[in-house]
Amino acid sequence: MPQSVVFITDESMSIDKLKSKFEPYFEHCFSSESRVVLKSGGNYVTINADNDIIEHYEQAELEEIALKNLRFYLIEFNDFIFLKKILPLVVDDSRIWIDNDHGDILHGSQFVNRVKQYPRWDWRTVE
User: Fold this and answer.
1) Helix (H), strand (E) at residue 72
2) 126 in a domain, yes or no?
3) Quick one: which of 58, 42, 45 has its CA closest to 15?
4) Helix (H/G/I), strand (E/B), else coil: 99
């Protein structure tokens, strides 16, 4: 069953730049203008550009994100453990914020620090 997180970036972070961050960890890559599918063994990650996601945010949440001209990417995956290993390598970037859809909207470096500090943290659940 697919699981997801949302990447919130600025206009400088294109889908191709996100693809290049994920690509080293996968064997196969298929892409279009608004979607990237990466596969390795039985694992996959899809990157879906979807600026309509902004409609699900309150203004106060958007104001906390220290970026202008926001872009939204839905990141879907099938293996939490696999993604937990590679996500810290991908998101430690000043232009990436992560929304886990359970109350946390974290800057990329904050996300990385939390994964390191709490190795058993499961961002898919409410704490």
Assistant:
1) strand 70-77
2) no
3) 45
4) strand
Average pLDDT over residues 77-97: 91
Dig out the tokens for 3 from the structure. Answer: 């699981």
Q: What angle do CA 68, 16, 33 make, to 5 degrees?
A: 95
- Express each pLDDT in 9-66 by its tens digit: 999 999 999 999 999 999 999 999 999 999 999 999 999 999 999 999 999 999 989 8
CATH at 24: 3.30.310
Within 10 A of 26 (CB to CB), how many other CB atoms are there? 18
Instruction: Tell me, yes or no, whether 123 lies in a domain.
Output: no
Amino acid code (one letter) for 106: L
State the total domains in the chain: 1
**Tokens 């709490």 belong to residue:** 118
Residues in the chain: 127
**H-run or E-run covering 126:** none
Range of the structural domain that residue 46 is part of:
3-117
Task: Enter the DSSP assignment of 34.
Answer: S
The answer to whether position 122 is within a domain reads: no
